[in-house]
Amino acid sequence: MKYELAKLLAGDGFSCSCGKNHFGLLKDCCIGENALAENLIPMLEKYSIRHPFVLCDRETFRAAGEQVTTLLQQNGIAYTLHCIARTRPAPDERIVGEAVMFCDARCDGVLAVGGGVINDTGKVLSAARNIPDIYIATAPSMDGFASATSSMEREGLKVSLPSRCPDAVIGDAAILASAPVEMIRSGVGDMAAKYVSLTEWEIAHLLIGEYYCPIVADMVRDALETCVREAEAAVKGDHEAVCHLAEALVLSGMAMNYAGVSRPASGMEHYISHILDMQALEFGNPASYHGIQCGVGTLITLQAYEKLRSVKPDKEKALAYAKAFSLQAHEEHLRKQLGKGAEAMIAGEAKEGKYDTAKHEERLEKILSIYDRILACMEKLPAEAELTEFFKKIGHPISGKEFGVTEDALKEAFLMAKDIRDKYVLGRLLWDLGLLDEFAAALNV
Length: 445
Ligand SMILES: [Zn+2]
Ligand SMILES: [Zn+2]
Description:
Layout: H1 5-10, E1 14-15, E2 21-22, E3 28-32, H2 35-46, E4 52-57, H3 58-74, E5 80-84, H4 93-102, E6 109-114, H5 116-129, E7 133-137, E8 149-154, E9 157-162, E10 168-172, H6 173-177, H7 181-192, H8 194-208, H9 214-235, H10 239-259, H11 268-283, H12 290-309, H13 315-324, H14 327-338, H15 342-352, H16 357-369, H17 371-378, H18 384-394, H19 407-416, H20 426-432, H21 436-442
Parallel strand pairs: 3-10, 4-5, 4-6, 6-7, 7-10
Antiparallel strand pairs: 1-2, 8-9
Helix pairs in contact: 2-3, 4-5, 7-9, 7-10, 7-12, 8-17, 9-10, 11-12, 11-19, 13-16, 19-21
The chain binds zinc ion (2 copies).
């Protein structure tokens, strides 16, 4: 990679041509052969952890926890171990409660051993107790390693909880390479999402003047290209390739810290995945790993961008569409599709005035006046067919049907993705142009 993790971590951030002083939150990242054996004890010493709290589940205990506790014993370090007895525990009150209750007063640091859920829980715990946190990754499955928020479920709703960025991440080549292949594919899917997020970041910058940093964007594109180049080897368990994928994921997480927003790494495709997660939580609908859902969301989004590039925007049509839009019917639809999760979205819309007709007219004028430049941003996107071929090669799902999500459900998710946050993504551009419903209906998913 052009941007070396070690160099980025060594400095205390850097001042950038975008005017920002970028600084990361992660202090150490040790990814490579024998990373666990070589770095665990030095990291405990560095962060003055004398009695770690080891958090894992049964699977991740087998994958890495056993090795962690053996190393602690060999070095005469006392520890408290809590192994969650459920398979694939949910990131909810129960797991946080367990973590708090078992992390006794002697514990002066967290060693979270596992995937995203264990990492997110470790981050919540270390924030609550104000103690350092070391994350030992068992799979390169998503890019949340280095963020200071935790993706949790609270009272049955998905929330992004402010927590604490791990002080150090350890990714051992042998452990990462023996992760279930579906989780490695998930990491690739989460990286493929960056094709869309980078383009939408640029569009939002042009259209609504959102902050944008070309250096951070370039960093993520570099990580994305590395990941695409090495994905085939990574899913076969090649140690070096898996480590490069893990580094790309860490870098992508750091890019969000640098930018101070999630723009570099998440866009329309992440919101499609988010809708599926909400429905899974509320109604028990089928779902897959975060990155896999984002990967499929990326394909759908690329398909719609491709179609948009061949359409000439029509001002009258867009105005008529906005005029015919019923906010009340829209809100009812959200409630029916998403249950109680819809309320936060509806409140967010009211606060932002998302469907205010005067604001729409203003945006539409701007869209039409710079449409050539918006089109130029879209030209950086790969063709849907190209990404489909790539996914097929690595065994990554190319359709929601492969994990039980129907065509209709995906079309619905495409329609509602724009309502998740106040971010300007493809769904909102299509709504502004009066094209959202017809595009969703025409999707071939
Ligand atoms: Zn910058
Ligand atoms: Zn993601």
